[in-house]
Amino acid sequence: MPLTLNSLKNIPFIRQGDNLADILVKSLRESSIELQNDDILVIAQKIVSKSEGRMVNLATVTPSQRAIELAQKAEKDPRVMELMLQESNEILRIRVGTIIVEHKLGFVCANAGIDHSNVMGDGNEKEEYVLLLPEDPDRSARIIREQIKHITKKNIGVMIIDSHGRAWRNGTVGICIGLSGLPALIDERGWKDLFGLTLKITVVGVADELAAAASLVMGQAAEGIPAVHVRGFPYPLGEGTLKDLIRPKEQDMFR
């Protein structure tokens, strides 16, 4: 079966409390896609965060002294810096314009995943909002998957993705930050190559590979495509978690 990725149509601007499962099922119908077992829905982090009320009005944030000091070094808004501290286990690097942290979810990323783009409040132009990552993306993916299964009776996978940079490489790519109903990794150690040799170290980050492909379909600016339908994923569905993708700190040679 070929691997196909199709954007979902007519997804409205998401607000706190919106039921994403209902919205996605409606969008599937309007996109003339009949959900099948083993399909996967890839969802942008942004709409998950919005539905879960992770928008923060910066007017409500009071920066600590440490946030003020770090913000001066990075030339950042001290209120945003305060949120970065709250969302992080550790600040790893600071330079003008960029803060690299270990997020509370365990992965290393820039600016604690806090985003200004495509974030609006309730129409008051004097207010400025930012968006935080979901508190538990695996749980978010699981709830959406269970709700969609209840509606459609189909067993699918659900993945939540975000755009991150990478060590030693320029440019951002889509990566998986939460998943339910599909593997995060495929361990190919013990498999044979074309010449019969046994693979010894090959563990494939299939969730991140699929996230990068879906990110191409979604775009990064004004495309307005926050969800992608996937069919033909070349591995059996199963249960993976975000933790599967995070390299333990003692094995991390890039910090």
Outline the biggest β-sheet: 5 strands, mixed
- Our Rg estimate from Cα atoms comes to 19 Å
| Structure annotation, total helices | 6
- The poorly predicted ranges are none
Instruction: Classify the beta-strand content into a percent band.
Output: 15-25%
Average pLDDT, rounded to a whole number, is 93
Helical amount: 25-40%
What general outline do the C-alpha atoms trace?
A: globular
Distance between the termini: 40 Å
Question: Can you tag this structure with a few keywords?
Answer:
255 residues; alpha+beta; 5-stranded mixed sheet; 3-stranded antiparallel sheet; 26% helix
Describe the 3D structure.
This protein has 255 residues and is α+β, with helices and mostly antiparallel strands. The protein is built from six helices and twelve strands. The strands form four sheets. It has a five-stranded mixed beta sheet with strand order 1-12-2-8-9. A three-stranded antiparallel beta sheet has the order 4-5-6. A hairpin with a 2-residue loop joins strand 8 (157-166) and strand 9 (169-180). Helix 3 packs across helix 4 (78-87). The longest helix has 16 residues, at 137-152.
Summarize the topology:
Elements: E1 4-7, H1 20-30, E2 40-44, H2 45-51, E3 55-57, H3 65-74, H4 78-87, E4 88-95, E5 98-103, E6 108-110, E7 129-131, H5 137-152, E8 157-166, E9 169-180, E10 186-187, E11 203-204, H6 206-218, E12 227-231
Parallel strand pairs: 2-8
Antiparallel strand pairs: 1-12, 2-12, 3-7, 4-5, 5-6, 8-9, 10-11
